[in-house]
Specification:
Layout lengths: L1 H15 L20 H27 L4 H45 L5 H15 L4 H28 L24 H12 L1
Helix pairs in contact: 1-3, 2-3, 4-5
């Protein structure tokens, strides 16, 4: 079983280009998907565990109490520790590169459209990224503009509707204003009608 570990590490070394084979250039590769934060934290945790185990094995090696199997484990874990470090660094570099690219695209959009508030646009992206699944800041900006235009058109349409309504003439009955009838809770409707009829005659 230990031979498999050692053999696997040799294969991994040759695949990663450490055995003298040139590794493919990053430009030749297709862009890799971004590493989720959960996976990144898992890799960091595993790297820390490996560091601890490697330090334990190195302490045993220095004391001279390490067995052949533990020596192989130490070699394998040291190699894995290096790989995990590379993966972690690549993920962080990729994240930083993506952030810089995002900021550059946002700056370009805002330079072309100085009337757009940066804070408002970034808040729109943060609030609606999951809902609209923006492919890029440009796509987000198009949706931002469309929604803002629709909102402004709705406001204008509402204002026009309110201002366009005709003024209604005052009610012809006049209501209780100026009728000269005094309201009395003790009078019935018929009595009030008689009083109104008498005033009209």
């Amino acid at each position: 079983m230990d031979e498999n570990i050692e053999g696997a590490t040799e294969e991994e070394k040759s695949e990663s280009g450490e055995a003298g084979e040139p590794s493919p250039k990053p430009e030749d590769k297709e862009p890799e998907p971004q590493v989720p934060a959960a996976r990144l934290s898992e890799v960091v945790r595993e790297r820390n565990e490996l560091r601890q185990r490697v330090s334990e094995l190195e302490t045993k090696k220095e004391a001279g109490t390490i067995t052949a199997d533990e020596q192989k484990e130490l070699q394998a874990k040291t190699y894995l520790k290096g790989l995990l470090k590379e993966v972690s660094e690549e993920a962080k570099a990729e994240e930083a590169k993506a952030q810089k690219g995002f900021e550059h695209q946002v700056n370009d959009i805002l330079d072309e459209n100085p009337n757009v508030d940066r804070k408002e646009f970034l808040q729109f992206i943060a609030d609606n990224d999951e809902k609209y699944e923006f492919a890029s800041p440009k796509a987000a900006f198009r949706i931002f503009q469309d929604l803002k235009k629709t909102s402004e058109e709705s406001k204008e349409k509402g204002k026009k509707e309110v201002l366009g309504k005709p003024n209604l003439p005052p009610s012809q009955g006049g209501g209780s204003r100026g009728s000269g009838l005094e309201y009395s809770p003790n009078k019935s409707f018929a009595q009030l009608a008689e009083e109104a009829k008498a005033k009209l005659e």
